[in-house]
Amino acid sequence: MIRVTFLGTAASRPTVGRNVSSLLIQRGGEPLLFDCGEGTQRQMMRYGTGFTVSDVFFTHLHADHFLGITGLLRTMGLQERSEVMRLWVPTGGTPIMEQAVHLGVERVPFPVEVKELEAGQRVARAGYDVIAFATQHGTRALGYALVEHERLGRFDVARARAMGVPEGPLYGQLHRGLPVQVGGRTINPTDVVGPPRPGRRVVYSGDTRPCRATADMSRAADLLVHDATFGAEEADRARATGHATAREAAELALRAGALRLVLTHISARYAEDHRPLEREAREVFPATRVAYDGLVIEVPYADADADE
Ligand SMILES: [Zn+2]
Ligand SMILES: [Zn+2]
Asked: Which of 125, 173, 246, 250 is most buried, by the most CB atoms less than 10 A from its CB?
């Protein structure tokens, strides 16, 4: 299971309906937080994500993306947390993040590690990696891709039966790539197991112009979450401020062959009605929606296998 919860979807400042940036991705029960704008902890309560997060990945250190970490850490301290918290920031971001960690308290009662990431670096986890890539936002900024490892090939039960393999441990051996003996014959894995299948890929652009690195990372992505601060009528402003328009995000998703696009970091000028952004993007890339606070997206395997 991969579940993406949009905790904050506003650009630059909160509105009545939207909080500033934060995104929570849960994979197999393990939650990862991406950006932590002011008030994120309250959004986590509101949308029931729990506070078991141990890694926060910051796209960049503009205030609307990190001010919430101070309050979140204070609350975790009050809850007598003892587990380490890792805060991942773009290169050079340590001094600002250290200030945010220590602001307004004598001592943080649990270990907090601030770690810098450069484009191309990956954080290895069980079954997947989080890969940082360089984006274009007029400051040091990263996007992040959660990329699952390849899965085993599809196991053809009918064919295994037809070849006389008894149900049980031999199935597992074949699936893991080991030949087995049945009635004096050797059955090879390739007889009953298909080629390895790609895992899922979820990409979060953070604040950025549409750029090559995001497109490269989003090849066949199951889900792309992209900056769409403005509509096409504000294209100049998007360029000047290092953001994307809804149409530009859609064009990038189309070029990359992504399966689904969710637009976020929505300017306050669309607070009343975000549908123009959605319409604009869907003309280019129909599988688009505009995020709202509390939106939850489940990301299934593209080949929707029942055997996993
Ligand atoms: Zn921002
Ligand atoms: Zn920014």
From this structure: 246
Share of the chain above pLDDT 70, in %: 98
Residues by chain with Cβ below 5 Å of ion ligand 2: 62, 207
Please identify every stretch of the chain with a pLDDT value under 70, giving residue numbers as ranges.
Answer: 304-308
Q: Which of 35, 64, 222, 293 is catalytic?
A: 64
Q: What is the pLDDT of residues 114-173, one digit of tens each?
A: 999 999 999 999 999 999 999 999 999 999 999 999 999 999 999 999 999 999 999 999
**3-class SS letters over the chain:** CEEEEEEECECCCCCCCCCECEEEEEECCEEEEEEECCCHHHHHHHCCCCCCCCEEECCCCCHHHHCHHHHHHHHHHHCCCCCCEEEEEECCCHHHHHHHHHCCCCCCCCCEEEEEECCCCEEEECCEEEEEEECCCCCCCEEEEEEECCECCCECHHHHHHCCCCCCHHHHHHHCCCCEEECCEEECHHHHECCCECCCEEEECCCCCCCHHHHHHCCCCCEEEEECCECHHHHHHHHHHCCCEHHHHHHHHHHHCCCCEEEECECHHHCCCCHHHHHHHHHHCCCEEECCCCCEEECCCCCCCCCC
